């Protein structure tokens, strides 16, 4: 899906890794590692037409198609993207990304393990 930016360039929206604020505008980080300037006036439009982009609580927009894993680390769920970038997730984000049922199962498993006195470091192995 190609989108036309104000500077006249066309980009494949499915190749967007993330979008970060950059002073008055935004920077699109592509899967290739290339950074492209996104005019602030196009920000909402790009987010709206690209349904696979979601905004995390920290303000960063990520491409859900580029998610490699969501893993618990020290009682925090960490999201990893194709390029190795990691982001800590809050509960609401985890529910939105993984589905409420999976999050509940993860919480129930942790509570079960805590009840069995399994050391925290052993959670990572399970």
Structure, explained:
There is one protein chain. This protein is α+β, with helices and mostly antiparallel strands. The protein has two domains: about 1-65, no CATH class; about 65-125. Helices cover about 30% and strands about 35% of the residues. It is built from four helices and ten strands, in the order E-E-E-E-E-H-E-E-E-E-E-H-H-H. The strands form three sheets. It has a five-stranded antiparallel β-sheet, with helices on one face. A three-stranded antiparallel β-sheet has the order 8-9-10. Strand 8 and strand 9 form a beta hairpin. The mean pLDDT is about 80.
Fill in the keyword field for this structure.
126 residues; alpha+beta; 3-stranded antiparallel β-sheet; 10 strands; 28% helix; 37% strand
**Unreliable sequence segments:** none
Q: Find the structural class using helix and strand composition.
A: alpha+beta
Radius of gyration: 18 Å
What level of helicity do the residues show?
25-40%
Number of domains: 2
Q: Counting H and I runs of at least 4 residues, what is the number of helices? A: 4
Strand proportion, as a percent range, falls in 35-45%
Shape: elongated
Major sheet summary line? 5 strands, antiparallel
Q: Element order, helices and strands?
A: EEEEEHEEEEEHHH
Give me the side-by-side strand order of the main sheet: 5-4-3-7-6
- Mean pLDDT score: 80
Number of strands: 10
End-to-end separation in angstroms reads 39 Å
């Amino acid at each position: 899906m190609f989108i036309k930016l104000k500077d006249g360039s066309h980009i494949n929206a499915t190749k967007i890794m993330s979008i970060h604020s950059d002073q008055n505008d935004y920077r699109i980080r592509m899967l290739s590692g290339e950074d492209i300037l996104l005019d602030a006036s196009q920000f909402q439009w790009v987010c709206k037409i690209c349904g696979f982009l979601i905004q995390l609580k920290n303000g960063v927009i990520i491409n859900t198609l580029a998610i490699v894993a969501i893993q618990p680390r020290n009682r925090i769920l960490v999201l990893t993207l194709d390029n190795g970038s990691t982001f800590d997730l809050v509960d609401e984000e985890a529910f939105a990304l993984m589905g409420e049922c999976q999050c509940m199962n993860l919480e129930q498993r942790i509570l079960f393990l805590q009840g069995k006195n399994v050391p925290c470091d052993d959670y990572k192995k399970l």
